[in-house]
Task: structure prediction
Amino acid sequence: MEKPDRKNGTLLLTLIVGFSINSSFTTLFNSAVPFSVFPIIALLLTVYYLQKRYLNRAMLDGIPKLAAGFLLGFCCTVPS
Result:
């Protein structure tokens, strides 16, 4: 059995942050979608754990750039 890499957890948290940002913007600014506080809560929790992970563990080379790319990619998909 393979041991999971640390980068997989970072990428998963970043993916959740991206989805949470997208759904938070959608619930706040799209009148067709009813308001929900859950995407905002998910966003706050995942950013907190991502920041904790960054402070407590050494990041591998290239992971912060890759995570920033994922985050930027999901932020740009907000529907108008």
The CA atoms of residues 7 and 62 lie 10 Å apart. The mean pLDDT is 77. Helices lie at 6-29, 38-56, 63-75.
